[in-house]
Amino acid sequence: MNDMTMDPGIMMSIVEDLSRYSGGFAPLDRQPGCAQPLPSRQIMAAIAEELRSVLFPGYFGRMESTGENLRFHIGAALDGVRRDIQEQVRRALCFACTDSDAVRGCAGRSMEITRRFLSSLPMIQKMLVEDVTAAYEGDPACLSPDEAILAYPGVYALAVHRIAHALFELEVPLLPRMLSEIAHGATGIDIHPGARIGRRFFTDHGTGVVIGATCIIGDRVRVYQGVTLGAKTFQLDDDGHPVKGVPRHPIIEDDVVIYSGATILGRITVGRGSIIGGNVWLTRSVPAGSRITQGSARHEIFQSGSGI
Amino acid sequence: MNDMTMDPGIMMSIVEDLSRYSGGFAPLDRQPGCAQPLPSRQIMAAIAEELRSVLFPGYFGRMESTGENLRFHIGAALDGVRRDIQEQVRRALCFACTDSDAVRGCAGRSMEITRRFLSSLPMIQKMLVEDVTAAYEGDPACLSPDEAILAYPGVYALAVHRIAHALFELEVPLLPRMLSEIAHGATGIDIHPGARIGRRFFTDHGTGVVIGATCIIGDRVRVYQGVTLGAKTFQLDDDGHPVKGVPRHPIIEDDVVIYSGATILGRITVGRGSIIGGNVWLTRSVPAGSRITQGSARHEIFQSGSGI
Amino acid sequence: MNDMTMDPGIMMSIVEDLSRYSGGFAPLDRQPGCAQPLPSRQIMAAIAEELRSVLFPGYFGRMESTGENLRFHIGAALDGVRRDIQEQVRRALCFACTDSDAVRGCAGRSMEITRRFLSSLPMIQKMLVEDVTAAYEGDPACLSPDEAILAYPGVYALAVHRIAHALFELEVPLLPRMLSEIAHGATGIDIHPGARIGRRFFTDHGTGVVIGATCIIGDRVRVYQGVTLGAKTFQLDDDGHPVKGVPRHPIIEDDVVIYSGATILGRITVGRGSIIGGNVWLTRSVPAGSRITQGSARHEIFQSGSGI
Amino acid sequence: MNDMTMDPGIMMSIVEDLSRYSGGFAPLDRQPGCAQPLPSRQIMAAIAEELRSVLFPGYFGRMESTGENLRFHIGAALDGVRRDIQEQVRRALCFACTDSDAVRGCAGRSMEITRRFLSSLPMIQKMLVEDVTAAYEGDPACLSPDEAILAYPGVYALAVHRIAHALFELEVPLLPRMLSEIAHGATGIDIHPGARIGRRFFTDHGTGVVIGATCIIGDRVRVYQGVTLGAKTFQLDDDGHPVKGVPRHPIIEDDVVIYSGATILGRITVGRGSIIGGNVWLTRSVPAGSRITQGSARHEIFQSGSGI
Amino acid sequence: MNDMTMDPGIMMSIVEDLSRYSGGFAPLDRQPGCAQPLPSRQIMAAIAEELRSVLFPGYFGRMESTGENLRFHIGAALDGVRRDIQEQVRRALCFACTDSDAVRGCAGRSMEITRRFLSSLPMIQKMLVEDVTAAYEGDPACLSPDEAILAYPGVYALAVHRIAHALFELEVPLLPRMLSEIAHGATGIDIHPGARIGRRFFTDHGTGVVIGATCIIGDRVRVYQGVTLGAKTFQLDDDGHPVKGVPRHPIIEDDVVIYSGATILGRITVGRGSIIGGNVWLTRSVPAGSRITQGSARHEIFQSGSGI
Amino acid sequence: MNDMTMDPGIMMSIVEDLSRYSGGFAPLDRQPGCAQPLPSRQIMAAIAEELRSVLFPGYFGRMESTGENLRFHIGAALDGVRRDIQEQVRRALCFACTDSDAVRGCAGRSMEITRRFLSSLPMIQKMLVEDVTAAYEGDPACLSPDEAILAYPGVYALAVHRIAHALFELEVPLLPRMLSEIAHGATGIDIHPGARIGRRFFTDHGTGVVIGATCIIGDRVRVYQGVTLGAKTFQLDDDGHPVKGVPRHPIIEDDVVIYSGATILGRITVGRGSIIGGNVWLTRSVPAGSRITQGSARHEIFQSGSGI
Do F69 and A2 touch (CB under 8 A)? Predict the structure, then answer.
């Protein structure tokens, strides 16, 4: 029942305030050159969805097809993605662009970036084929590679990461982080697009996994739920603000396994083939072949403990 | 292929059972006064989305606009929200309303509540401007305030929380929790709408954060993923049921930092400026300026440990 | 601006590569018998949504109805689900079907399975009525059973689990895991459809909860956020691949409470009425009535600790 | 490309003008009593669609069902229509309502009207069963009654008319004409909701058919495309405005056939069993059993006629 | 406001009546063999839309593409249409199928029909290229062939007709008429799918055009709005029902022009190159080269005529 | 059932043919300068819908608002239309643009055109206020101006025409005709955007009305269903093609009434205040105050006429 309405004067004043205070964000005022709208989260989400159906053809979207016909669907989806992503890249470039003559430059660069991004998709797909195998082989509960594709959050998060990382490498602003947050929201796996992740990576369950922006991860690494690969501290500049861009996250070498809830902080190295136990807290480098577990103290049983 | 269909008799009997057993929930039977449908989760989600585009104008939704025109979009969106939320508030009031003459009372109260809620939006926006700054300044990986708005789950969860808390303060049943769960589902950050959170709050990554209903959090607090601010125990009444409404969650004073995985339980106080280390388990108050870390026992390395 | 387009030759070659590399997945080639499309994640998500509105009638979907009319909505929704799920079951059976004459067998079996699945819904609803009561009684912040239905992720995850488990028991491939991942994505609660969970189960907050495929959980169990009921190790076969289907997850007996962040691994038994404290790491069986907490070492305070 | 935007001042002034000039319509200002929004054309269209699926169960909408299950779909659709139409009737009553105390009266009357309207649906369906038979028997190109339901515009227009006429009889403002225009837009058949049409009515092709507000049509009448049953003149009042509500359209008795393009004007009577030929222009009554054709003059052939 | 609801007993009784009376249609009871749902009007409309974008690539739908990429979109759209139309053909065959063993026959025939239908599309497109040229050349107001494709109802109606006619030739029940009615509803042009229409056909404006089931139309024919090519009378069988399938509509030879409002009835022949003037009523054959106009009587002016 | 699929080779060959034959249209190849996609019919339809809600605020769309708030909705809708129409105008200009340096020219001109178009909307609205009054006063069945807005196809067709005509005057290619065909499809009223129509125009019922491109219509003219204001003949150029742009449709002076089915052809003038009777065929000018009816011959009754 909309019987009565608000006093228009109050409404006007609220709108007025909201318009004024939003000056605190002022996203558009800062773009004297391009004056474009910001990239759209909704469209980036659609692009992520479409790319998933392109990279795993036959598994998602409207591609209920076989063999040759699949090619049409891949081509049509890719052609659509091409247009959408080029527009979003252009907006993102304009967002970061300060010179008032730069508009056409942004348009041209967005085309070039799109071209290079699309050209990297086959290689990304090749890596995902291996990642899927790693998931299938790494989890006894996984009954087929198809199940890994259709139902493993780690495979989805990794697919989005490899896409976001490619855009990150092409120095596109904003979009890589928007993509990684889309995957984070859907899976609870938070991989910064700057992270470099090798082949056959597998993360099972995945909720709460955090992989920082300057992480370097080798091949055949396995990571379980709740693992943090984070920064220990970060430098502050003279104004007390954190310095951006400094390497501050771990290097994980090939064939490392990190069990659930482990926390690995700072620019340390976990040597090849190491196993980091569940809930371990690690802030210094360990050599190849290490086996790290928590102290046994935690295993004590206090039968009579009442409070929790 | 729908060649054959189920025996209608079986179908009838399943429907019959489902109708009968659903009496166990009986949501509508308990409303002798108003007999309204329950609030709609789908519409609450749409309201959350619309309010986000109002509070961060130019960042979300269809508002690809600049300067003055933004005002139209804010006004139009707000006018739509006004109608929708008034209807949902009315339903929520009717849900909790027991007296059979109370219908018109619910309609009138929902209007008054809506008016007050909308009037609080500019103040909420003002706080969010500061929260965004806190996110930008608190994370070296964050390259602009815009990135914080577009891609930080903590900013979104906090925006929804500040909205939900405003409705909670207006004593609206059901809706605040529905909103907080919408944010929880999208981000993994679970803030009870009853929690009181000060200015410039920042939570990074956020997955697994739990902030209880009676928490009180000061200004400039930072919280990382997997942190629990929970209850230690709760009182049971004579029937063995938990007593509702008792203060049972921590008080976190200004300028506290709580690192990932820390668990802080009970009505204790973490003094101003304290730093609580990762994975710390804390169940008693600590004074201002405390630095709490886990014991070093966990840092031991057991090179020969075989099974994990 | 779509002013210019990509060189068609490059585009062709990308599509060609994507088509070829996708042979690494080859989902359809392996189905010489049925050659059906794979089950659709989107439709499974719609089925989960529709079933939720059937099991909690009046709380979700378009069912803003009372009393008798509810019956029509339940029947109509169920009849729609019947068709959709039968088709998805058929696709899932065909996916796993190897014999080229099996097509009609898959169609027939999908009908029989659908019949049995639908017939199990009233029993599932009956259990959910109890689960909702457990949530209401288990959390002092929960003000009504309706709030538990509308806003508790644990209730939703459990509803989907009970559905997925029913399909798992009927030996349907793929679909149960697709369903459990839909709930995992929405709630952060990851329950393998194979897990057997007793009555009045309650998980609060839930983010990061992992419950493995061969878990057996008794009645009246409570589990908080971040709890893992996982495998400690798993057997490898002669090729170094994990052996599938071996019991490897815990047995949790009746009336156990497991607090947040606890990790319980391996085919061990937690005896009836035990309480497992937060962050506890447990890899061996404990008798009935145990109270397990972490060692006190972690409670030490290091006031002067600088770096985190 | 949204590179540049309009001068906000111009935009403001356009909006200002549009707001001011729209005062010429002022739909809402005239409702001092109820101040409701107007009925929604979009929702009326949805209601027409839903009612079609209820009246022809199994032919439209999501009702791909057989036998008993159909009942659920009919009930669910009808329950949805009930809510929607009650709200639209209330708006329509409020629109026409002038007394400031009348709000609750409108709510109550809308409920009573909805009740009576729904109760008339079975009778409407009964008439439509006969109308479908008339279409099947009246057109040699129609191969089954099902084809008449699925593909004959006359059947659809008549179904909507019978619905609109029921609301017209219940003295609901606005809605009947909105419904008839929905059918007119879809079929080119324009039947005023006030027209009274007997059983087994059939109009083939139908484009351009116009049937006026005070027409009375008997049973078993057939009408072809382009037929007008209109007013010849209408009375003007002292201000020169047409007097509303005066009988001014033809009475067509039982068993009359009117061929394409015929125009019948004024409050005349076409006697039972008459046949009115194509393109005939008729402005006076004809007795039962008449056969009216155009004069033969028009049949002359002018072989050498050059201009068209 | 849904404050009060209808007495459930009345509701039940209405649903009961609607279910019972709908037995008058009984669409499904008559299909002892296949028991399939009826074809879906909504899906047929989507198929028409998709086929339009395939036949006029680049003009409709999401195909904002050039050159080579267009191929992907055509292929993807066609592959989607293939699946949808095969399912609808199967339903239509089952609808008309009476033998209880015929299910598999319908499935097989639907595949064969779909194959043949798709194979006819290039030829249909070839004809449409010519039809578009005819429209462009036939109307001085048409400024480009593209305008004819984008904005001429006659081109759309003809495209749908050529599709519907192909299905008619393949003896598919129901679907051809459903398609022709979709075009009729959108354009006011009613062409029965059985009509045979030659090359370079053009109908301008088109509203009210009716072309009967057994019409045969030559090449380069032009037809204006309101033209009827209908049956004069039709035979009745011994029961007084019209005999189906008898040739009863005109034959229009090559290069005929028929101006607006002309009515041509019966199995007569309009000879090659004839011109039929506006509003002419013609019920006998005319030789090649005829010029037919109405008698001049109608041109008289009655200055003093008062009533209309 | 998608059990089997088409031979990919056949599919490939169909796609190949469709791609090749579509070269007959070649919409994009002809744009060497801009190479833009064509304007989108779907978006033009959305623009028409949005503009209707702007011109009749409170009657359509989501604007269920009163007084002041309406302003926000008008502004927001207009700002959205601004972006959409500017993009479509740019595409339309590029479509007609032949010089390869003209891209930026098209972008700039589309902005200027959009500005001028939007500035003309208040004047259009002012005219529509009068048109609505004319409808209300012209039809005794019309009970309020609101009914005319909500349910009269003539009002809708005229609103779209006034919009399309404004774009026509601004020399935008394609879009005006696309708009007029959208209104034609919805109402059966076909007004060429070039036609100049005075104030207080009213067309009742409207199905089959055709108003040609070079018509000039004065103030207070009334036109009924099935009226054609067309061309009699048109000039052919040396190639036998019609010459475009020549005045060839009637001039209708102020206060003329034209009854249903009348056909008026050629560049003739119908003098002020004339009344043209139903079905009249008129191909020469008539002076002011004429009363034209058909000869009486047609009123003869042939009682014994058997055939129709």
Answer: no
Q: Which of E228, E230, E142, E49 is nearest to F208 (CA)?
A: E228
Least Cα distance to E298 among F272, F284, D258 occurs for: F284
Close Cβ partners of E63 (under 8 Å, ≥ 6 residues apart): E53, E57, E70, E73, E74, E77
Instruction: Tell me whether residue D257 is exposed, middle or buried, using C-beta atoms within 10 angstroms of its C-beta: 0 to 12, 13 to 18, 19 or more.
Output: buried
pLDDT in tens, E59-74: 987 656 666 778 888 9
CB contact under 8 A, B58 and A37: yes
D62 touches chain C (CB under 8 A): yes
B75 touches chain F (CB under 8 A): yes
List the E216-217 sheet strands across, edge first.
E196-197, E216-217, E251-252, E269-270
Q: So what's the pLDDT on residue A103?
A: 55
DSSP state of E236: B
Distance CA C77, CA C46 (A): 11
Chain A neighbours, 3+ Cβ pairs < 8 A: B, C, D, E, F
Determine the 3-state secondary structure of C148 from DSSP: helix
Order of strands across the sheet with B190-191?
B190-191, B210-211, B228-230, B263-265, B281-282
Task: Tell me how far apart the alpha carbons of residues F50 and F160 are, in angstroms, rounded to a whole number.
Answer: 11
Chain A, nearest residue to F14 by Cα: A69
CA distance F228 to F209: 6
Residues B229 and B210: their CA atoms lie apart, in Å, by 6
**Among B159, B243, B156, which residue's Cα sits nearest to residue B205?**
B156
Instruction: Judge residue A230's burial from the number of C-beta atoms within 10 Å of its C-beta, 0-12 exposed, 13-18 middle, 19 or more buried.
Output: buried
D3: nearest CA partner in chain C? C1
In contact, D281 and D295? CB cutoff 8 Å: no
* CA–CA dist C228, C239 (Å, integer): 28
- Please tell me which of the candidates A19, A39, A278 has its beta carbon nearest to residue B70: A19
Q: What residue in D sits closest to E18 (Cα-Cα)? A: D122
DSSP one-letter string for B239-254: TSPBPTT---S-EE-T
pLDDT by residue for chain D (308 residues), tens only, comes to 344 456 778 888 888 888 876 666 654 445 444 567 889 999 999 999 999 999 998 898 765 666 677 888 899 999 999 999 999 999 999 888 766 555 568 888 999 999 999 999 999 999 999 999 999 999 988 989 999 999 999 999 999 999 999 999 999 999 999 999 999 999 999 999 999 999 999 999 999 999 999 999 999 999 999 999 999 877 777 877 777 778 999 999 999 999 999 999 999 999 999 999 998 999 999 999 999 987 543 444 444 333 33
Q: Is the entire prediction scored with pTM above 0.90?
A: yes
Q: Which residues pair with C230 in a beta bridge?
A: C265
pLDDT over 70 (residue C209)? yes
Amino acid, single-letter form, for residue E268: I
The Cα E176–Cα F280 span in angstroms is 37
- Chain centroid to CA A167: 11
What distance in Å separates residue A86's CA from the closest CA in chain C?
A: 8
Residue E84 contacts F where some CB pair is shorter than 8 Å: no
Q: Chain E within 8 Å of B103 (Cβ-Cβ)?
A: yes
Chain C positions in Cβ-Cβ contact with residue F103 (cut-off 8 Å): 3
- Would you say D188 and D153 are in contact if contact means Cβ atoms under 8 Å apart? yes
Residues of C in contact with B265 (CB under 8 A): 278
Whether residues C36 and F2 touch (CB distance < 8 A) is answered with yes
Evaluate whether B35 touches C66 at the Cβ level (below 8 Å): yes
What token pair was written down for C205?
A: 């907050």
CA-based nearest distance A162→chain F, Å? 31
Residue of B nearest to E38 (CA): B2
Helix axes A67-96, E67-96, angle to 10 degrees: 130
